[in-house]
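re: ur question from yesterday

yeah so i grabbed the chain u mentioned. its 342 aa long if i counted rite. heres the sequnce exactly as i have it in my notes:
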Amino acid sequence: MAFNGSVPLVRASGLGPLPTLFERRAGERELWRAFEQEGLPLSVIDSLQTPVPYASMIGIFERCARLLDDRTFGLDVGFEMAKAWGFGLWGAYGATAPTLGEAINRYNRTYHTHATNGGLELLWRDGHWLWRCAARPLGQMAIQHVDHMIGPMIIIAREYLGQRWAPKWIEVSYFRDPNAHLLEQRLQVPIRYGQGGTGIAFGVQDLLARRAAGPANGAKIVTLREVVADLVLSSAAEPARSISAIVALRLLDGQTDIDGTARMAGTSVRNLQRMLGQRGYTYREVVRAARKARAISLLRETDRPILEIAVLLGYEDHASFSRAFQSWLGCTPSEFRARYHP
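ran it thru and got these structure tokens back, copy pasting raw so excuse formatting
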């Protein structure tokens, strides 16, 4: 896919239980290997609000399923999101709505805070309501990622319609493949292939259903302001915004090289520099902004030694990090922590 100045992103929370489920079946070593081959830092599992390139998210789903030789792995991941708020803050915001229709409305309005590729929509079709995730065509290369969206949509509906509820039919964006019968056996619901997205169909009155019980343990009330909070360079023009997200992701492993960032963005180093330059940015400025944001978070929210933080941010020693930090905020990391650490 040609780089057009914007990298589709999705929150790392979209991984759901994939790492746990894959490790349970294949082991920790294979989990490390799968993430390394996909170019994703494994530490992203603990940073669920971090944006991840959409292509990398699709890739890790397909890679894990291929290693396990399991056609229904994506479906398993989706249904193991046992709580309707399995997508971080965004998931929690919708799952606490009083009615199913309002929950769907919340998700549709704020989907852009979870992913920048496509959107959620509610359609009237064949006498039923169809709730669908419509994205750019992904074809057969994204079967597992498409399938994993089925479970959370059904789980959310069952929060309001009861645990025995099943959709009238299910739609997927890919065409029926030779092993699709395994999916059909598991779901026991009619499936329509080659559609404009991934969705489930409701009865006419289903959207009026109210939550049968309060949110399960672990849920919390989430405000819209929390949901739309973003990371580095959130107000910057593309491609600076999406490139900054990739830099922040790779910074979880202390990686800052431009070659790796360009690879993850699906472009060349030269083109990446050119596109950033057209918006008035250099790659060094994007890295500096990402380092600053992560440094502030680590100093305020953790007790990690400053030398360890310096290494995590890709600096060679304490002195280099300290000089950079002073240029950002006019004080040393130690002074900042003494002033702002809770």
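noticed a couple things. The beta strands are 9-11, 51-53, 119-125, 128-134, 170-171, 191-192, 198-202. also Residues 240-340 form a domain with the Arc Repressor Mutant, subunit A fold (CATH 1.10.10.60).
anyway ttyl
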